[in-house]
Amino acid sequence: MSNAYIDKFPAEAKVVKAAFYSSFLALALGGVFGVIQTLHRTDIYRFIDSADYYTVLTAHGVFMVITFTIFFLVGVFTWAVTTSLDRGVEDIRFTWSWVGLMTIGTVMAGVAILAGFVDSIDISASVLFTFYAPLQAHPLFYLGLVLFVVGTWVAGADWFRSWWAWKKENPDARIPLPTFMVLTTMIMWYIATMGVATSILVFLLPWSLGWIETVNPLLTRTLFWFFGHPVVYFWLMPAYLLWYTMLPKFAGGKLFSDPLARVGFVLFLLLSTPVGIHHQYLDPGIAEGFKFIAMTNTMFLLLPSFLTAFTVVASIEHGARQRGGTGYFSWLKSLPWRDPVFAGMALAGLLFAAAGFSGMVNAGMNINYLVHNSLWVVGHFHLTVGTAVALTFMAVSYWFIPQVTGKELWNRSVALIQVVLWFIGMTFMTNSMHRAGLIGMPRRTAEPQYTGFEFETAVGSVGELNAQIALGGVLLTLSLVLFFANIIGTAFGSRSDNLPDNGYAEALSGSDDAPRVLDNLKLWTAIAVVLVIIAYSLPLMSIVDRGGLFGPDITAFPANLESVRFLAFAVEHLGTAALESAGTLAWNTLPEVIR
Amino acid sequence: MSQATEEPEQLQEIGHDEYNPIGTLALIGLYFVILVLLWLFVYFVEFLGNDPTVIGAVLTMVGLQ
């Protein structure tokens, strides 16, 4: 009998497994669209119409950075809360309800995007990941996103519920570190999603349903980025959680400092949201001063980032020293590099360090102008979400999937080759993307080849850059194939008793050394909200003041669709019915809650 | 076939007081040096390769105007 997660929490293991498999399905779809666009834009192999490129790009973006990352996150967070509180979820039906909401949301948004490939269906959502107006998607897309986000809200409520129940039984205990990380991340997410919820529910959805004529594009963009920067931390925080609480264990050591980890997560809660305007340095409708404030806040984010770099590396080094490592650098050789879980996560961290540099360039107001909207930015986020997050998730899956299925990993060597291949592929792809951005090559462009104009490279050539990007893309696709072979091979294996124990790393300096105030979630929430109000109220007021709440008269693209009218009618009726039943439910349950 | 994570072979137990993360200092120091060199390189890319893109006076930068 092993002591794996599935042995202790069989019902929760099913939820976590469902979340992981959903995320892998999105990863597979996203991967297919990724290689298509890589080969298309570099003009190495084109078999789709260039107009369809934007549908491919939307699918790649949404499936990768919304579905893959967030489904994986809810799996990790459920595991983290149940493991560290050592208790199952309060009500498994409640838990499945948010999995259901997120799944329905994904299917709706996914269908809307993929229908863009079929001319005979007048549904499309080729609006890219950022869905900037006047690009307009079918209402199904926005409704799907709403359901998906509501699903994550309910998931957060589920974890808070577990914590409250645990706190009743352990009134004086410190919040276990993994649960602390989950709760702070979710508070950040609740604040951040207010922006996108407002943007969709008040403006974009009614606009796509034809209830309002126009929107103010700058306002919806700003609301998007209100959510759009913290969402990158929503991708990163589960990876950070794994780096802090699992990587030291895989390295054979202990977490260097529990208090430092808590400080890091509190700082991310405070600073993730009031920085979104740094994505809009080139938006003409926002005053320079507001951008300058966003830049200052952004630079403060370096603090928790470097805190993390120090703590995680020091924890790994502790493992290496316990394994007999010595010297300034030669301790690195004592690390378990043949373990795919450790190697994948460590290589992900290494490329993340490179992303730190390109991120600082993005964050600086004046040098941002040099790289804005160029392929540089694409290179940057393929290092962050595409490697730091994605490679960490894939590598740690080799530990997680046996934990939640009770089956041994199919092939360890294939797993090691897979993570190394991802690292090599990303190195090719991203270094060339950064360089292509420096010579001004645009992002989000199907055919960045222009007659009568040639990009001038200081070193190498455009052909060489394109070749590297395409080679990288092909290696990444290969890596994905190996990943799925391993996951499928594992899923079809038989139950094993020879599994590692479930658990997370102990700390050298534990939670007793952390000041009590760090666990005061109400205080940090209040400060986070105040910072958001300071950073956003004046810019939003000035945007509304200039362009109006519903903006100047803009023409939606593509033009309004026939099927929308029926959907608008249906949504109106369903919405009224849902509100009514929610009202009745609240009316019936409130007295009980109060009692 | 085998477990994804083999139990790491631990040769010694190092406690909180006897551990000095000197290797971490060395690695992060190296990273810092690389960052400084890259920043120097940015000077050539940004200011010698193109016209300066800093806009407005100091006052407009901080939004006082």
From TrEMBL, chain A:
Q: Which Gene3D superfamilies match?
A: Cytochrome c oxidase-like, subunit I domain
Q: Which UniProt keywords apply?
A: Electron transport, Heme, Iron, Membrane, Metal-binding, Respiratory chain, Transmembrane, Transmembrane helix, Transport
Domain Cytochrome oxidase subunit I profile intervals:
20-485
Q: How does it sit in the membrane?
A: Multi-pass membrane protein
Extract one GO molecular function annotation from the record. Answer: heme binding
Q: Identify the main location.
A: membrane
* Record-given protein name: Cytochrome c oxidase subunit 1
Automatic annotation (TrEMBL), chain B:
The alphabetized UniProt keywords are: Membrane, Transmembrane, Transmembrane helix
Where are the bilayer-spanning segments? 22-45
Protein name as it appears in the record: Uncharacterized protein
* Natural source organism: Natronorubrum thiooxidans
